[in-house]
Amino acid sequence: MKNTYFFFLMIIIYTAGISSPGAGILYVDKNHPDASDSNDGSRNQPWKTIVHAANTAIAGDTVLIKAGIYEDGKIVVANSGEPDNKIIFSAYPGHERQAVIKGASFFSQGNSHLTISGLKITNSPSHGIRIEGHTDPALPPVTDILITGNHTYDTCSSGIAIWGIKWGQDPGNYDNIKNVIIEKNLVELGTHGCKNEIITVANGASYIHVRDNEIRLGDPNMTGGDEGIDFKEGVRNSSIYRNYIHHLSDKAIYIDGGSDPRDPQITNIHIYDNIMMHLPSAGIVVTTEGLGDVDGVYVYNNIAAHTDSDGFRVYGHPDGVAAGGTVRNVHFINNTATQTGRYYGGGFRVDHESASGIVIENNIAWNNKTYDIRGEAETIIQSNLCADPAAFCTIKMNPEFLDSEKEDYRLAPSSPAIDQAITSAYLNPEFDIAGTPRPQGLSSDLGANEYTTNPTENPLNRISQLAGGEPPCDDTCSDIHRHGRGAAGPALLIMLFLYLLIHTTEITKFIRPGNTYN
Length: 518
Description:
This protein is mainly β and 518 residues long. The chain is built from 5 helices and 37 strands.
């Protein structure tokens, strides 16, 4: 029996060392003296170009890319991974953001189960990283994409773009791409000369989660859309959270129902725990520029500060009003707006006469230029700390931030905002922007920060270090963090085999159940 175990163990170890496509780890190292795309991709015989690796890798492959400047043209992924065997394109450990793709983009169309990690993309004449669904919307949606830890700089169009289907093509039922995570990326100087936004999600996308990214340096000439993050033209069941967005040339976050004549829908979008500062426009804007409808956008635990326009706004775009697009059920809960509207506007603004179900509740709006809160006749405004207009302010006192000069908007122990939030009929965040449970006292506090006697670090200082949790996904998505067979599969198999040798336990297959989105 022991000989049988040994035989199988040798097979597993041998398989783990194979470097051919689909069987393990592959290497790209342009600086290796023997690098060539005619090699087998092993450590000692690496490929020379990422272009070749993207065209060759198949399900189960992990492509490790060593430091260097790669100027070999547009990178196009040729194949899909599989639910248990993703294709992973990653910087070699320790070479994160030193494997530089210069003058080209990283592109995938119609491929699922991919990871793109730790790369740097600069001076692209189009996008930095662009993922699209199939060209035929009747095909099943692309799924299970992880874009993590990358750095895009000076891209003509979006630094990162997720399109269900290419702009101008029929998106069908707007179910073209799903289960995508965009996390821990540094995205700089996007849309530098071309259209779109710095991070764009559009045209039939669902269960998309944009989190823990830093987005900065917009196009100074504003030749493109220039918003930091844009959800538009049919995005559902998705989220934008824990991002630090600053020093752009336009808005931080833009939600747009869209102008497509096929009536796209924006619905069930959660925007929370974001910090948006030093902007020549607004923090968060919800609107529709055409026939597309927006219904269900939940905005909570965000900080908007030092903006030239409004911190938070529901906007009646003239094109959307004329086309008949609607905006419904947008809830601003437990946010902080301060020193906004430097040239025009203020903290919170609703200037969309036909919008319905708009709620401004349990927020702090203080020291803003023109006003703190403005709403339409049907806007629900209650339980806010502000000064202007007085009729909208439940508490009209200085909120006593811990140190606003250092952009620290946590509450001081004597703050009048402590324990003043009402129990909302719409949304009651369980945590604050720093992850502190709510409430700490008799009731939750107003604004984005919950006072605690043992405060965490200023969220502005720690936002780039925040770890992402498990996002919601639909019942068809795999574990989006699962590595492909080449990255971890063989080692896990060996460990499992040795465990069985010792414990002689029964093999049980564990299947993670799909999460649900509330």
